[in-house]
Structures are given as structure tokens and as C-alpha cells.
Amino acid sequence: MKSELVLDVKGLACPMPIVKTKKAIAGLESGQILEVHATDKGAKNDLQAWATSGGHELVKHEEEASVLKFWIQKG
Amino acid sequence: MAQAMTAAQVTKKIIGRESLFILDVRNEDAFQDWKIEGENFKYLNIPYFELLDGVEEILDQLPTDQDVLVVCAKEGSSIFVADMLEEAGRDVSYLSGGMKAWSEHLEPISLGTLNETGTDQGEVVQFVRIGKGCLSYMVISEGEAVLIDATRMTDVYLDYAASRNVTIKHVFDTHLHADHISGGRDIAEKTGATYWLPPKDATDVTFDYAPLEDGSTVQVGDTAIEVRALYSPGHTIGSTSFIVDQRYLLTGDILFIDSIGRPDLAGLAEDWVGDLRDSLYNTYRDLSPELIVLPAHFMIIEELNTDGSVAEKLSILLANNHGLNIDDEATFRKMVTENLPPQPNAYQDIRETNMGKQTPDLETQQEMEVGPNRCAVR
Questions:
Q1: pLDDT tens digits for B147-171?
Q2: By a Cβ cutoff of 8 Å, what residues of chain B touch chain A?
Q3: What is the model's pLDDT at position B224?
Q4: Are the Cβ atoms of A22 and B49 closer than 8 angstroms?
Q5: Which of B49, B80, B367 has the CB atom closest to A46's CB atom?
Q6: Given CA atoms B351, B354, B358, B360 in this order, what sign does their dihedral have?
Q7: Do A49 and B77 touch (CB under 8 A)?
Q8: Could you tell me the fold of the domain covering A5-73?
Q9: Closest chain A residue by Cα to residue B363
Q10: Tens digit of pLDDT for each residue in B43-89?
Q11: Is the pLDDT reported for residue B285 higher than 90?
């Protein structure tokens, strides 16, 4: 999936993955996609809930060798 | 900087029926599923990611006349929020280690001495895993100890045994657990104790064990403090109770204070409901009603006695526990096979870990054990 920006938050624990994701998405335009790479297992539920509450959409996620990858479309 | 509050300190507040205001900054789903329970606790659940821009919006929802504790899954987000609250002039704490630490805290509570009249001062100690509602036991007498339904926090039992100058000789599991990872085998390996399991629950295990059969007995210490096994299937096909010194009845996951065991976590509810009924309505009813029931779980905080222990006379449970007072077998069958609560988190993986088929790392074990035990039908 094509993304506008890739954010690497591997190795960071809560709340930093969301703090950085929020900052990164603020620089994007509506409809653009942010790709996030994280290792914190809690990131999955939190990013999903954060995206929903912020009007963004988690369009895809996958796990690759313990790295969680997310594609979030800015709302 | 916000101060840390430990799981042990929160436990003291629960047992003392103190008040506490909990600001839980986890997801709504996680909060609804499982939280810190206290009779006089109040709650506000706002996910931390709603507070990244500041805490002004929630200040008027936080009391200033009682302790406020900020809670999250692992502690990081709760420190983040608590520090913002401190900057806003509020005096708050955060839960050290978050819900992970909460799940792992064990509070040892002595149930008093056995054989008060003799020279031996035997004793039963209940380890209350307050966050998850799991109960394990150490029976102590004359320098020896027996451990029952130990959790994976093995150091707690080893340190406690060392502090009491006792040697752990036998380690039992009443059944193959589905809600938590047993520490029994690990403790037996570290101490040279014998690890016992009911053979009917152990058909798929990958390790050696001593078969725990109906009537198996061990002595603790030189005098006759006896721990005797009593076959009582129903939660699992192997579920076994213990009678300690003719005084205590350890019921495992068959009978709890305000509920009874569920028959569906290791097979089909329909297959074992008859065994469960037989154990509850025949096996236990044939015992002395003066026995004090010590279960392997509690479900609600109201089941805690004033000293924090979970224990009640069998006669009182026979009179008051709803699950022991359903005369009609068909009604009983319906209650324990329909409308069962959700299953414990990752219960199949937990069972396989307890069989020795999986060896997850610590972080995975912690993730597997998230949530309450969910072993009962109420």
C-alpha cells in the first residue's frame, strides 16, 4: 500500500507511538496515508481506538517479524 | 513529578475498604473488560490518547478531597497523564507497573494456625492474586511446606518459604488451569519438590509428574497435618479437592464463595455437567459442614473477608450459594451450560502452556493472562 509518510516508532512504549503518530498525521492532508511501524503490542488496540476517535481510518495492519505495521488514512 | 503507588499499596486500600478515585487511561474496551475493583473505589475512564493536548477538560471531573490514581496497561501513559495533572496543580499518583503489575501482585494472608492446642504451629497461608482473582495456598508445618495452585510468580512463594524457614516438599495443581499459567512445575524443579497433577487432566502433558489420585495423602512436617486428595470432577475431568487437617476444604475451581465452577473450558459443558453436579451435590454434602472452604478463585471483591482472605464455612455455602441450591437437575444443567460468561483470555494457549506444549516468553505470558479469571458460573 502506498503511503505518504513512514513513521518508525519501533522500540517506543506507550504513549509515544500515539504521540508521534498524532504529530505526523497533523502534517498530512485529508485522504493521505501514514504508515506506522511499531513494536509495542498495545499499539494495535490503541491506534485503532485513537484513529476512530480522531476521525481517521486504520485501513490496513499486518505483523512482520514482531514489527506491527499500520496504514492510517487521515480523515 | 507524580508519585508511584504500588500494587501492594492499592491492595491495602481494597482490604481496608478505603476510598480511591481511579483515572483509568486505557481503552474503553480494556476498561470494560477488566479493572481494579474496590468497594469504595470510583472511576473515570478516558483513554490517554484523548488527553495528549492537555488535561484541562477533565480537571473538574477529578476530586480534590481523595486520592487519585492514574492507571494504564504498563505505566508509561499513566505517568504521562499524571505528570500533566501535577503541572495543572493536582496531587495524583500513578500505578507502578500498570495493570501488568496489578495482575501479578500476590498478597499472602495467614488464615491462622492449625493444631493450636499442640506443640506444632502449623499454618495455612492464602496467596491472594488480587487483580486476577486467583488464590493459591501454602500449608506450613514444622519446617516443611506444601503448595497448591501456585501461579507463575514463583519467586513470591520461594521467598516466602525462605522467610518462614520452610522447605517446599510437595506442589499440587488441583486441575489443569485455563485462566493462568501454573508455576507448580517450575517451583518443583527449583526446590526438588514433587509435582502432582490429576492424571485425567494430564493425558497430554509433556513432562513427568506424580499422579494425584483420590485419597492420595501427604504429611506436612513430622506431626499429622494431613493433606488428602478428594476427586471432585466437573470443571475439568481431573479436578481434585483437598482436605487439610480435617479443617479446610480446598475446592479448586469446583466451588467458590458466591458461584460455582464452569464445565466448558477443557471440553464440552454437556459432557461434564453431570460430574459437576455430583461433586457439588453429593461429594461435598457428604463432608463435615464445619470444613472451611478455600476456593482457587474469587470473582467479585465482596467475596473478600475483612482481613482480605477468601474463606467461608461449607455449611454457610450449602445454605447460601445459589449454585448449591438448585434442586432441579434440568435447571442446574441449563444454568451451567447456557449463558456462560466469555472465556478467559487466551485460555487454549494457557492450557497448552500448562501442558508443556508451549513455552512463551515472559511478555507473552503477561499478555496471555490479561483480564479476570472467568472460571465461574454465577
A1: 999 999 999 999 999 999 999 999 9
A2: 27-30, 47-50, 52, 72-74, 76-77, 80, 363, 367
A3: 63
A4: yes
A5: B49
A6: positive
A7: no
A8: Translation Initiation Factor IF3 (3.30.110)
A9: A41
A10: 999 999 999 999 999 999 999 999 999 999 999 999 999 999 999 99
A11: yes
